Amino acid sequence: MTLLAKGQRLNIREVIPAGSFQVGLLAEGLPVDFACFGLDSAGKLSDDRYMTFFNQTRTPCGGVEVCNVQGDATGFAFQLEKLPRSIERVVVAVSASEGGTMSLLRSGYLRITEGEREHARFSFLGADFSAERALMLGEFYRKEGDWRFMAVGQGFDGGLDALVTHFGGSVADDPLPAAKVSLEKKIASVAPQLVNLHKAAGVSLQKAGLERHRARVCLCLDISGSMSALYKKGLVQSFAERILALACQFDDDGAIDVFLFGEKVHQPAPMELANFHGYIQQIIQRHPLEGDTRYGRAMEAIRKFYFPENAGGECQGLSKASQPVYVMFVTDGSTSDQTLTEKQLRWSSKEPIFWQFMGIGKGRKSKSKRLLAFSDSDFPFLESLDDLPGRLIDNADYFSLSSPDEHSDAALYDLLMTEYPGWLKLAAQHGLI
């Protein structure tokens, strides 16, 4: 192993010919964030997608990716041959995440590893710095056809924003709230498999103009017997994880309320980052599948939970809340309480609650001859709710899928935002939010 001093260089090809390795990072005594900047020949971040950090964990080409390196706080996986020719340098940096300065660091290091073998290490001490809030630790750069590494150790007073600006990147005028940034870091740390889902949901919300929107999220799941195969195959679990990722964009508590309905209605503990692994299997073991389907009862229970003043009945006037409720309502068939369901949807149109109905599969045919006569849909009753008359505002949307995993993450999130933004405007106009 080579111990590198500040300014010392290393030819990567001579040490790791394949150019695939990990960079392990550690900084003790101060909360910090690590990032990699992929720079062009002018030393600029000409493509923001080549800034790799906790909120953007992979470059488009896969050349740099956030990873766990055993024994280190965090790390990056490098595959240098995948980087496009436009990327001439990759700078590894660290910044204080809670307003501290690098002088508070006890010690830290950057090390280059290949599997269990450590090839090189650059160590640094807080005593070497004073008011700096960020450091360029080292950089990989092209020279004469080879990739090389140099230990840098240069400080910046302005923190991560100063580094981004220094490299020609853009810093948002209205930065993310601290709570949301903290949640994003938590997702990357404790639920890395949700990171890409969280990013996909964020892109869809940004396209809908809702990147800073706040809402409570509820997942309402059909537990009738015909759903058995979907639960056993893990498709409901995967779908629930996609909704959890959406909830993490909508609310910084990183949790969703869950309701189950068949003949009866059940409300298990919320699904959250701490318990999402195997969550659906666990709640189905406690609440076995049932022999009936009653939308109305489920909607009544949800309304009682969020708006207890109305007790699930007709509103006397309008209900108002600082945050609306987005309900993801999932079923594979029709309901035996159509009249109650229609009443619940009409009554809830005076509350800040939006119902996103999703039908799965072919559906069980409705017993209503009236509905079957006017629709070729596999879910004629759900479809009728989308255009139900007698409501203050349109508070529902409906679509159907052959399977919960039919669409890509991006396509699903776009679908979930089809009518919700329009409802938000109507709800605000009528004083519901």
Structure in words:
The chain is α+β, with helices and mostly antiparallel strands. It is 28% helix and 28% strand. The protein has 13 helices and 19 strands. The chain has helices at residues 12-15, 159-166, 178-190, 195-207, 228-232, 235-250, 279-286, 295-306, 338-348, 369-374, 380-386, 409-416, 420-429; strands at 2-4, 9-11, 20-28, 32-39, 51-52, 64-67, 74-79, 89-96, 107-114, 117-125, 134-143, 146-156, 216-222, 255-261, 265-266, 271-272, 325-331, 353-360, 396-401. The strands form 3 sheets. Strands 13, 14, 15, 16, 17, 18 and 19 form a 7-stranded mixed sheet that branches. Strands 1-10-9-3-7-6 form a 6-stranded mixed sheet, with no helix packed on it. A hairpin with a 3-residue loop joins strand 14 and strand 15 (265-266).
